[in-house]
Amino acid sequence: MNGLIMMCIAIVVLGAGYLFYGRWLAKTWGIDPNAKTPAYEFEDGVDYEPADTGVVFGHQFASIAGAGPINGPIQAAVFGWVPVLLWVLIGGVFFGAVQDFSAMYASVKNKGRTIGYIIEEYIGKWGKKLFLLFCWLFCILVVAAFADVVAGTFNGFAADGSQIVANGNVATTSMLFIVEAVALGCLLRYGKLHKWLNTLIAIALLVVGVAVGLHAPVYFPTGTWHLIVFAYIFVASVVPVWALLQPRDYLNSYLLVFMIVAAVLGVLLTNPSINLPAFTSFYVEGTGYMFPILFVTIACGAVSGFHSLVSSGTASKQIKNEKNMLPVSFGAMLMESMLAVIALIAVGSFATGEAAAQGYTTPAQIFAGGVAGFLAELGFSYNLIFTLINLAVSAFALTSLDSVARIGRLSFQELFLDASIEDENMEPWRKVVTNKYFATVLTLVLSYLLAKAGYQSIWPLFGSANQLLSALALIACAVYLKRTKRKGWMLWVPMVVMLAVTLTALTMTIVQKTGGILAGTSANVAGDGLQLFFAVALFALGVIVAVQGVQKLMAKEPSTQK
After folding, report:
1. Cα angle 362, 236, 157; round to 5
2. CA dist., res. 169 & res. 387, Å (int)
3. Contact assessment for residue 364 and residue 322, using Cβ atoms and an 8 Å cutoff
4. CA-CA distance, 324 to 445, in Å (whole number)?
5. Cα separation of 397 and 88, whole Å?
6. What is the pLDDT of residues 168-206, one digit of tens each?
């Protein structure tokens, strides 16, 4: 197998999935291009804000991608390239894209409300409360894992104390992006310029940021970057979406285009060999069994519960027309699967031991090194491409942090809100816990404590919780479709498979962490204890919500049309 054939197979499968299956779903469920979307109906300039398709797509893709479609396939490649490729393509079309589209569809049809509100409306109030608690705990895991990935990418010093220039370049440019995003947000909101002029300005800002970053690297250790990244996340999760979230995603969408185009061209023109074995074993020492590890490790590249939170939590509130839902949700997921295939090709292009010999210790570095190697054969500067790809990966991870911290904050607030209680009649304690600053600080403090354990130790738990969230979102959407007289059978197989995968994985984590702590072999008792608590809590909450959802799915109830 070579990279060109693998990429062509992926393009054909994913393209056909969008053109035939995606459009069939839109036709089956029904799209009303004349309907007034929640972005207009509830426009408030904070969360509800109509945006062009390209802007929302950029937000959706950058938010759901993060480091997931690169980290997951590269780590799962220990099982061989065949199982990884099959799951990315099958999971991407029939699991992930279906989940993302159904979550956004249900949200837009229900006033832009989150999956939590969908559960309350169609499953029950307690189901919503438990789901929100699950989401909040899950968001803490996501912030911890991705924040550590970003801090590691920005880390300016190697183990021997020498400066890592590429990381310093990426750090400078990423920080400049934040400042530029605020300026662009003000321009987009108040400038009223033609969209093509806005595009030229965005590209110019992007070029300036990269140029400055390449000539003025900054060097801080990982611990310092942890603090800086968490300070940024705090600000990003409380300011209006137009001030940072939308323009940052708009800028990142061009970086995304560059990265995808560069990788595709590199594969097309160099046709790298895939040096990975097609299949290794159902059990890999130090990793575990292919079921369920493969499915929870790949996560975002095939299906991810986090996507349902973005689709229903932020993106649905920015959709200008219902017809935009398919390209924004279904299309963004398939683009992410394509990125996962490219990551697989990149890691496969290295000979055995070559990546480690070059000092690549993280999946992001392996991905950047692979793509840079493709383009270096065509005469491009290896260091420049390596820096730009690393920049793109860190930009995606930061954008995911923007969204997930906001979603975590909203989930915690909603957990204590009661529609029957007016704001002025709230008890003092309820006013405190529903305050956005309190909710944000609590979420980030717990995330920071977990981040110190390192993303490698968090990733398996994150993957398990992520896929269980996917199953719960699919159950909620299936109940919604049933109650509104729409076909939902296409969600049944994905939700059953994901329940089996994730409950198995969480059980294995609970047994492993408990055994390590009791036997005294745990290297980090506090960190493992916190992860054990999260695993038990997520397992219990997930099972309860799933049971309630399946009961509603099987029950005979009066249907409504919404």
Report:
1. 30
2. 7
3. no
4. 37
5. 20
6. 888 898 888 888 888 888 887 787 777 678 778 878 887
